[in-house]
Model the fold of this input.
Amino acid sequence: MLNIQTPPPKQVLLRLPEDLASKLARAVAPRQRNKFLIDLVRRELDQEDAAMIAACEAMNALETRDPEFAREGAEWVNADLAGSVDDWDADFDADTFSREASIAQTALRAASTRHGKA
Done:
């Protein structure tokens, strides 16, 4: 008989905002909170997995119907992205990318500050 041991569960420290922690304390009995959080995380991750599977199936269907999609998908799968971006994307402009990324980050920080998330 094989003696297969399962590793003990990993302990994770969660820091919840005060309002959320209070809601959790009111809504879920003390000895049920761990199970509640496990079930919640598992359900969300399972939904994410299902969404990813559905997206893959939809893309597979598109590639089956349209050979151009299949060729483009094959290009992505077979692309060698280990080299310089100039090797695999001749249209890439590092200066424009850096400038646009900086603008986007500044806008994101400003939005976060406006919403009190600084």
